[in-house]
Predict the 3D structure of the following.
Amino acid sequence: MKVRLSIILCFAICSFSTSCLAQSIGKSEQAPIEQLKELLLQPSKTYVMVVAHRGDWRKFPENSIPAIQSCIAMGVDMVEIDLAMTKDSVLILMHDKTLDRTTTGKGKVSDHSFDEVSELFLRDGLGRSTEWRIPTLAEAMLVCSDKILVNLDKAERYIDLVYPILNKTQTIDHVAIGSYKSLSEMRDMTGPYLDSIYFMPKLKESSLDVDDYLHHYFSSINCPIVQIKFETENAQIREYIPFIKELDKWVWINTITDNRSGGHHDDRGTYDLEGSYGWVISNGFNMIQTDRPQLLLNYLRAKGLHD
């Protein structure tokens, strides 16, 4: 892997100083968000970060305020939420391009004004209407402020609108965005904003020129996390895990489906915890995005890997 030495040298020059960071989140007397922000820049060997996919959607509608609040209450480290934009350029929390699956409305989000979508109700995981409304990004970030880290999915599409909201809510340092795109592609999409936000490069089995891809990111912007996706246990992309951890990066895995984690997924965890979460941790992953945050937290706490 031809450029790994240069990546290490560039990382040493460009990375944030971590000399005064806490060695263990559990021993810090700081507020929880300060602990998490420091931990994000200096992974602990005895801590696994939990990321809740679309919030706690098994109890509340996905991408909703109560789904986020539930994650905060249970002690999740980061919540993943999705962005969409209304016809009048208001950023809302919504995974799909259409309103049909998750709300009482129909049609494309982009065909409706915010006033129109604000009248709708969110549906739960079984498709039933609830009392909850669609939140704006600003509303969600105010809930997250000083309480939990955030992964904003699809944020790069709207970065010129996202960044001012993060700035106003004082949550820029709470947020990470990610993509499979190259650094040059991301700069074309985000301009100077990329230098002011945490970024997560993503790798998968079909990724090409991985060394160059990582080198360009690590030598240019702050990337505290690398995500790896693979369908089979013997995927060669997993060979990068030790190298990434050498650079004090978090190694993120999605256990939300079997084809993202080589079969070691959340549903397997309901009857085989060691074959699910135990396997991914023993293979070097220390940041897990899950659809079952409470199950994962219980497992990690029993193992002494989470507060």
About this structure: The chain has one domain: 30-95+135-302.
